[in-house]
Design brief:
A: about 70% helix; rod-shaped; B: mainly alpha; Sodium/glucose cotransporter; 2 domains
Chain lengths: ~50, ~575
């Protein structure tokens, strides 16, 4: 029988990133960076081709 | 290859392998052997995840892709950051809560034993084949360009990677990958800097990108809706999300990497490290290929980069024909070089008329050159069947061996082997853990000591290593290598991902429904691959979508139906505490 260690659940629930306060903030920054890269690539494609 | 290069190459490869094996010797239990004692910090995890994905093919095929087709391949990676966010938010908490060694353990907990076995077997088949390709890819190219014996090259690198992976387990894999990735980044940075430095003899650095654009290599993003076009932003984001989600969320060679984390935070940060750096890294690898393309506009390339093909033609009765083709190719190249210089000068002066005229001349001469290359390939196909395979995989290393300084050549060849060894070690570790935990311990010998399981794990890891070596020695791959790996993955990943997404998101679907749906989806994907020309990234979406939709539909008509299952499933179906017997870890 597999059991879930309550400590592990607590560890997951208590998990906070060391910056940007929450993981949602970290993900928003990563998505923002991706959007920036796509715009940069689109701009380069437009300028260079 | 001279003595300095050899010292750099052997010193790097053996040094890192020996350090990894020595530092991680003496594993006591499976927790330490496969879980790395959960001691890794985010930097090590990030580099380890990156090194696992970036095989030798990445550093051979990707610049070749840039050389031949330009930057469009970068679109394949645009879905990756989104997928990593989903894995971080959805998959990691579940794996941590369940305390699993392998992703497939979770499937039994959520569904049933047969679904776990199906997931594990699909992984073992796909990854078992891919491990052979990751060993074969660097060996075939390096050995043919340097005149080494292919089988000996595969055997030596294969045995080196098997030795430290078997000896040190997961921690050895992570530690060696950290150092291998450092060597890779250093080597690729050096190659990029040197090719730009060489180009500076012909033009200013600022001119390189506009010239590459005029020569058709800078279409980075395409918004085309043509479904048969392999690389568009749509296939990259949608297909790419599914491919990456399946790879990072359900492929044990990746799951095993980030589950070595000291905490959930370390694992998540390791993935975010990749979400930020992977696209720029791939961009620079492709750009290196584009720069090599520009370099070969001013320095004559061989008519074929695949040297053994050329040598086979020269050794045949039709050698004079090949010599004549080479002379014609050289004459066209000289003319084209002058046209490219005119084009660069026109761009410098901002003279639209001169640019348009020179561009038309370059295009016509490039087409003429390609025509002669096609004739050469045809000749090779006639005199040495099987040798005519596309030679873009050989472009980067031909440049390295022919034009970089002593010592740097050794470092760049070490980069290729480091990349091959780092991804192979993860694959072997994952194959070992899946066959031990999901097959051996679950089905064959469930109640043995930890010492026994560590011994079996080592034996099975060694078995998969020897299988990969044998497969690599028997392999002959005609297609572009990076595509071969991606196509192989795409055939299986969609189905596996569909099973996992059903587990996470459609709580009322149970084991039998998802199992049948997965079999139907896999059969459909393979049929589509054999009978249509749909871009392969879409298989990930199709396979995954079919499992989700069919699983839900089947659950609705199976005895019990949706309503009863949802009511009866209780907390287990909702991802809560377990209610079913489970012979996995814990």
């Amino acid at each position: 029988m597999m059991t879930i260690d309550p400590e592990k659940i607590k560890q997951v629930l208590d998990d906070r990133p060391p910056f940007f306060r929450s993981w949602t903030g970290v993900y928003a920054v990563v998505l923002g960076f991706l959007a920036f890269l796509i715009m940069l690539f689109a701009l380069l494609t437009r300028l260079l081709t | 290859m001279n003595f300095i290069d050899l010292v750099v190459l052997v010193g790097t490869l053996v040094g890192i392998a020996a350090y990894g094996a020595w530092k991680t010797r003496g594993n006591r239990d499976l927790e330490e052997y496969f879980g790395g004692d959960h001691s890794m910090k985010w930097g090590t995890i990030g580099l380890s995840v990156m090194a696992t994905q970036a095989s030798a093919v990445t550093f051979l095929s990707t610049p070749g892709f840039g050389y031949e087709q330009g930057m469009a391949f970068i679109q394949n990676y645009l879905g990756l950051p989104i997928a990593l966010i989903i894995v971080s938010a959805l998959f990691i908490p579940v794996y941590y809560k369940c305390g699993v060694y392998t992703a497939y353990e979770y499937l039994e907990r959520r569904f049933d034993l047969k679904t776990r076995q199906l997931g594990a077997i699909l992984f073992l088949v796909q990854r078992g084949l891919a491990a052979g390709i990751t060993l074969y890819a660097p060996a075939i190219i390096v050995s043919s360009l340097l005149g080494w014996d292919l089988d000996t090259t595969i055997l030596l690198t294969g045995l080196l990677v098997v030795t430290y992976t078997v000896a040190g387990g997961s921690r050895a894999v992570s530690l060696t990958q950290k150092h291998q990735m450092t060597v890779i980044l250093l080597g690729m940075g050096m190659a990029f800097a040197l090719v730009v430095f060489y180009l500076a003899r012909e033009m200013s650095v600022a001119q390189t990108l506009p010239l590459a654009g005029r020569l058709g290599r800078m279409e980075i993003i395409s918004f085309s809706f043509d479904y048969s076009r392999r690389y568009t932003i749509w296939s990259g984001i949608f297909g790419g999300v599914f491919l990456s989600l399946s790879y990072f969320g359900t492929d044990q060679s990746q799951v095993g990497r980030y589950l070595t984390g000291k905490s959930v935070t370390e694992s998540r940060l390791g993935l975010m490290f990749n979400a930020v750096l992977k696209v720029p890294m791939q961009f620079f690898i492709l750009l290196t290929g584009v720069m090599v393309f520009l370099f070969y506009q001013f320095v004559q390339p061989p008519i074929l980069f695949k040297r053994p093909a050329l040598e086979a033609a020269h050794a045949s009765a039709r050698a004079p024909e090949m010599t004549a083709l080479e002379q014609r190719y050289a004459a066209v190249f000289t003319e084209k070089r002058d046209a490219v210089r005119d084009l660069a000068a026109g761009l410098e002066r901002d003279d639209d008329g001169a640019v348009t005229a020179a561009q038309a001349r370059v295009a016509a001469l490039a087409a003429q050159g390609e025509g002669i290359r096609d004739e050469a390939k045809k000749l090779v196909a006639d005199v040495a069947p099987g040798m005519e395979a596309k030679d873009s995989d050989y472009v980067f290393l031909t440049f390295v061996v022919g034009h970089l300084p002593k010592g740097v050549i050794g470092l760049l060849i070490a980069v290729i082997f480091c990349a091959g060894m780092s991804s192979t070690s993860s694959e072997l570790n994952a194959l070992g853990s899946t066959s031990t935990v999901d097959i051996y311990r679950r089905l064959i010998r469930p109640r043995e000591s930890e010492r026994h399981y560590v011994f079996v794990s080592k034996a099975l890891t060694a078995f998969w290593g020897l299988m990969a070596i044998a497969f690599a020695m028997a392999a002959t791959l005609a297609e572009n290598l990076i595509e071969a790996i991606n196509i192989l993955g795409s055939l299986f990943y969609g189905t596996i991902l569909g099973i996992f997404l059903t587990a996470f998101l459609v709580k009322w679907v149970r084991g039998t429904a998802v199992f049948i749906a997965a079999l139907v989806a896999e059969a459909t994907v393979i049929t589509l691959y054999l009978t249509t020309d749909i871009g392969y990234l879409w298989y990930n979406l199709i396979g995954c979508g079919l499992v989700l939709v069919l699983g839900a539909a089947l659950q609705s008509i199976l005895p019990g139906g949706r309503g009863q299952v949802a009511a009866a499933a209780g907390p287990a179906a909702a991802g809560g505490p377990p209610v079913a017997p489970f012979a996995g870890r814990g």
